[in-house]
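Session log. Operator J.P. requested a structure for one protein chain; no other inputs attached. Running the standard single-chain path with token output.
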Amino acid sequence: MAHEETAVDDPAGPDLPAADGDDAALVAALRAGDEAAFATLIDRYYATMLRVARMYVATKEAAEDVVSETFLGVIRGIDRFEARSSLKTWLFRILVNRAKTRGEREARSRPFSSLGGELEADEPAVDPDRFRTDGSWATPPSRLPEDEVLAAEAGQQLMAAIDALPPAQRTVITLRDLEGFSGPEVSSLLEISEANQRVLLHRARSKVRAALERYLEERDA
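Structure written below.
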């Protein structure tokens, strides 16, 4: 089908990294029909894919369908993957294309770039000195040692803070900080400008940091 062909295109731009050696081994295993390799792909990306798909469709069930269709597209199209982008970028490009198609069919889809309210909302300013030039924390939230960040309780608070974010901010911080996508990759996948991506990420990180600090203050009170 023509739709299948376009859904598994392997786009790459000057700022999108090509596949690496780890990708090559996983791709080879997928092409060989290795079920363990396919399970690895699901384990790595299912939760994040569900979050991104939910941006475009009306229900969690529809998002689950989109993710399932995406994995089916990977199985059908893996032989056409040319490694001009990373496997992860290719996977999420398929996901976004299918989620948009499903959302349009539901007559609900909003382009990610139309979520301007999250950029224009009157939100408290955050001191830029609290973040490095790349947007990461210059220092962790107060009284939060590195080993505690890895603790289950703190991890649950972190995910709860991310889940409470507005949709666009939640998606950007999930892709950047949980999945390790670069700024250009996120901008390309979500079809937003690099400037908007940076604003969404900064606001998301600021809110998550504030939530963690409130949690620590309440716990220590």
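Operator note: The radius of gyration is 18 Å.
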